[in-house]
């Protein structure tokens, strides 16, 4: 076997995709759309929580600043100056403000951590190490933070609160006002915000998907119809080509082949009637005519291959090896029964074997050739393996002869690969070459 190829007809058209392909693509489209919808929903919920938290903190900071400036500061300055009754007035005003439940407690701090005033009894005068929020407020910044264990909470267990520290200025001293807000207010605000954002965002996506799915379904059906039409057109072309091939083969068989066979018989009958010195010429003419008949018969097989279904493939490959036998090359064939194989796959196997055997006959300089046809597996599916081996000179260093105008092996490899198979070229142990082609039993599996 050699890389110097002989030409061979290309394989027939590949079958159309299976009918379920468009369904799988549509299902994949819907699955991706559903995944995007879920991802956007989760992102919307998370974003609404962040927005609600930020809004609640900003609103709490504003409330604390207004309480410090309008409610506490005017009365606290007089109370700290010793004006009688001002502490009671401050406590009364503060508790009236707390009666709606939005603010749970209020505290006034010095920068040292001493409590100047607190709505919790017994806290006034207590000194607690200043927190980071308190120190930031001393510096003139309003700070809001969530605290699960407030330092001024006298309850038995932990209580999550929203703390807001804001600067509070009285004559002669810089203080800090702290207001505690119930954290469940943030949850309520987040729920309200989710109720506004999620229906709008998710609803828009749902409507978009409801619009896209019918469009995608329509497009998929249109593609399916086009594929069916293309498949039918290809099938009609194949059938027309088969009819033309059959007609040409019949014309060759009934015309030139019969005529040349008649000429061969006539020359054989005239041999004894010509002078003896002319008889070798007649013998040469008879041989030439019979060789022409054999060439035409091989051409008929090329134009219209034999039946390749069932055991016909092995028989056709054995017939394709007849030129090797005529050239004195021993052909050993091992063909196992095959399962039902797609017609286009058997056609590719036949043409592959024919191409490989032609290379052996023309270039291998071999004395023996081995043909193996058996079932195997390819990508975990049933497949058929064709191997052509010889004891000739082997493959040259480069098997790519396209630059020289020879496309046989390149077409052979492309044909097998197009049908989902693989081709390997290698050296045979003991000398020679091996070509192996493995194809799935059904194209597209």
From TrEMBL:
<keyword id="KW-0963">Cytoplasm</keyword>
<keyword id="KW-0479">Metal-binding</keyword>
<dbReference type="GO" id="GO:0046983">
    <property type="term" value="F:protein dimerization activity"/>
</dbReference>
<dbReference type="InterPro" id="IPR036890">
    <property type="entry name" value="HATPase_C_sf"/>
</dbReference>
<dbReference type="GO" id="GO:0000155">
    <property type="term" value="F:phosphorelay sensor kinase activity"/>
</dbReference>
<dbReference type="InterPro" id="IPR003594">
    <property type="entry name" value="HATPase_dom"/>
</dbReference>
<keyword id="KW-0902">Two-component regulatory system</keyword>
<dbReference type="InterPro" id="IPR050482">
    <property type="entry name" value="Sensor_HK_TwoCompSys"/>
</dbReference>
<dbReference type="InterPro" id="IPR004358">
    <property type="entry name" value="Sig_transdc_His_kin-like_C"/>
</dbReference>
<dbReference type="Pfam" id="PF02518">
    <property type="entry name" value="HATPase_c"/>
</dbReference>
<dbReference type="InterPro" id="IPR005467">
    <property type="entry name" value="His_kinase_dom"/>
</dbReference>
<feature type="transmembrane region" description="Helical">
    <location>
        <begin position="26"/>
        <end position="47"/>
    </location>
</feature>
<keyword id="KW-0812">Transmembrane</keyword>
<keyword id="KW-0004">4Fe-4S</keyword>
<protein>
    <recommendedName>
        <fullName>Oxygen sensor histidine kinase NreB</fullName>
        <ecNumber>2.7.13.3</ecNumber>
    </recommendedName>
</protein>
<keyword id="KW-1003">Cell membrane</keyword>
<dbReference type="InterPro" id="IPR011712">
    <property type="entry name" value="Sig_transdc_His_kin_sub3_dim/P"/>
</dbReference>
<dbReference type="GO" id="GO:0005886">
    <property type="term" value="C:plasma membrane"/>
</dbReference>
<dbReference type="GO" id="GO:0046872">
    <property type="term" value="F:metal ion binding"/>
</dbReference>
<keyword id="KW-0411">Iron-sulfur</keyword>
<dbReference type="GO" id="GO:0005737">
    <property type="term" value="C:cytoplasm"/>
</dbReference>
<dbReference type="Pfam" id="PF07730">
    <property type="entry name" value="HisKA_3"/>
</dbReference>
<keyword id="KW-1133">Transmembrane helix</keyword>
<keyword id="KW-0418">Kinase</keyword>
<keyword id="KW-0808">Transferase</keyword>
<comment type="function">
    <text>Member of the two-component regulatory system NreB/NreC involved in the control of dissimilatory nitrate/nitrite reduction in response to oxygen. NreB functions as a direct oxygen sensor histidine kinase which is autophosphorylated, in the absence of oxygen, probably at the conserved histidine residue, and transfers its phosphate group probably to a conserved aspartate residue of NreC. NreB/NreC activates the expression of the nitrate (narGHJI) and nitrite (nir) reductase operons, as well as the putative nitrate transporter gene narT.</text>
</comment>
<dbReference type="GO" id="GO:0051539">
    <property type="term" value="F:4 iron, 4 sulfur cluster binding"/>
</dbReference>
<keyword id="KW-0472">Membrane</keyword>
<keyword id="KW-0408">Iron</keyword>
<feature type="domain" description="Histidine kinase">
    <location>
        <begin position="349"/>
        <end position="443"/>
    </location>
</feature>
